[in-house]
Amino acid sequence: MASITIAKPAEVNGDCPRLSKNYKMETNKVTVVLGAQWGDEGKGKVVDLLAINSDIVCRCQGGNNAGHTVVVNGKEFDFHLLPSGIINSKCTSVIGNGVVIHLPGLFEELKKNELKGMEGWQQRLIISDRAHLVFDIHQQVDGLQEAEKGKNSLGTTKKGIGPTYSSKATRNGIRIGDLLGDFDIFEEKFRTLAANYKRMFPSLEVEIDSELVRYREYAEKIRPLVRDTVAYLHKGIEEGKRVLVEGANAAMLDIDFGTYPYVTSSNCSIGGVCTGLGIPPKLIGEVLGVVKAYTTRVGDGPFPTELHDETGQMLQERGHEVGVTTKRVRRCGWLDLVVVRYTAMVNGYTSLCLTKLDILDTLKEIKVGVAYKSNGKKINYFPSSMPELSNVEVEYVTLPGWACSTEDVRELGKLPPAAQNYVKVIEDFLQVPVKYIGVGQGRESIISAH
Asked: Does 87 share its domain with 235?
């Protein structure tokens, strides 16, 4: 394996006048897990693994448009709003201010996972009072906006995420704290929001009175879980608690750095951690980028290494590539290291987790995208223009496959030599070490590589 030295972040003066002297910033940094492609890389499994040694696990952005699957003791848990670490009974889960929350969806998710054996969540789930609410109105508007676009639709999940972030940006959004405050003020805000959307979409039907009755009930259900999460997290860090942050979606879906407009409505890159939780950059330590051993994406938009042949179909079938949230079949293609190098620039990965290596077990040859050409010339940037990205020519390297099963391998040295070489090529290209390798669905199916 390649030996790569990663520069350590500069130490922070523990005597910073704005913080307590026992604020252990040198040794107690926040660990962040981020998707490095278009999502569905297997972040939930990685977070579940790391949560075993964490005290607090946080979601910082997105909503129930995200989908994370965790398999524990043969049981499959699906999370959309909940941090994947909630399965760990010794870990507190935090839904931060940057998340947009659909309360009916949240309680449905809690109930479904409770029936599968998730116990005691009432004592270890905390929700930010600053988080914005996703209403059914937002979901209806999401669908109407997509319908208006016709053939130019973006393929959104229609979960109301974009309209909710739009409400937040135009300052007529409604937060959890509003719901728990003076209900007359909440009602006024809700009626104003509904009237605004009704003017925009006359066909929109909203049962305002029945919604208000429903949300009065939700207010009492959610109240015991809500607090100021900014103060809670900083107190926990000061006390030496280990904090893990789970990014939803992935870097190529980031509203600023992704394949805009085929993106989500939040910053799912490293910046969303700071704004979505109130954590300053100097408290962030390890940034683990999760990379699938090939590439997938759900929905529309350019996909340079996409495969439309039997290999793409094989990846889809062996990888069970169906969206957790949308149930749509994921598009599949070769690993695109141009994409991962770009997201590494934005996110500053200190290490990587390579997932689903076992899905490549049957291939005799494997291609990896290592460069783009635009108009016949190699480019050293990732195109922001979707027409340009749609027309790039991908330069590949072809590597030998290993043509044998890796599912039962638990040590790096016991991987087939060709599989070890595949990992080494990724490390050498990105100059970032691969710390974990996933070779199956379960929590136990991860190789510690470093």
From this structure: yes
Spell out where 75-167 has E strands.
75-79, 92-95, 100-101, 125-128, 132-133
Whether the CB-CB separation of 103 and 178 falls below 8 Å is answered with no
Cα–Cα distance for residue pair 248/38, rounded to 1 Å: 11
CB 86, CB 106: distance < 8 Å:
no
Instruction: Say if strands 226-227 and 125-128 run parallel, antiparallel, or are unpaired.
Output: parallel
Domains in the chain: how many in total?
3
Same domain, 151 and 241: no
Choosing from 288, 315, 332, the residue where a domain stops is 288
| 308 annotated active-site | no
Known binding residues for Mg(2+): 40, 67
Q: How far apart are CA 81 and CA 63, in angstroms?
A: 6
Q: Find the catalytic residue in 40, 142, 178, 254.
A: 40
Q: Annotate 337-367 with b (16+ C-beta within 10 A) or e (fewer).
A: bbbbbbbbebbbbbbbbbbbbbbbbebeebb
**What CATH number should be reported for the domain holding residue 165?**
1.10.300.10
Asked if 284 and 418 sit in the same domain, the reply is: no
Alpha carbon 386 to chain centroid, angstroms: 22
pLDDT digits (tens, 9 = 90+) for 358-370: 999 999 999 999 9
Q: Which residues contact 66 (CB under 8 A, 6 or more apart)?
A: 39, 80, 81, 248, 249, 325
- 40 labelled catalytic: yes
**Structure-token pair, residue 268:** 């799912």
Last residue of a domain, one of 223, 255, 273: 223
Residue 4 within a domain: no
395 domain residue, yes or no: yes
Burial bucket for residue 251 (CB in 10 Å: 0-12, 13-18, 19+): buried
At 23, list the tokens. 């604020």
Catalytic residue among 29, 80, 132, 168: 168
The pTM for the full model equals 0.89
Q: Is 78 annotated as catalytic?
A: no
Residue list for the binding site for GTP: 39-45, 67-69, 330, 356-358, 438-440
pLDDT, tens digit, 9 for 90 and up, residues 283-331: 999 999 999 999 999 888 999 999 999 999 999 999 999 876 667 899 9
User: Can you say which residues are annotated as belonging to the binding site for substrate?
Assistant: 324-330
Statement to judge: residues 399 and 421 lie in one domain: yes
Query: Which residue among the candidates 68, 138, 159, 292 is catalytic per the annotation?
Result: 68
The domain in which residue 325 lies consists of: 291-448
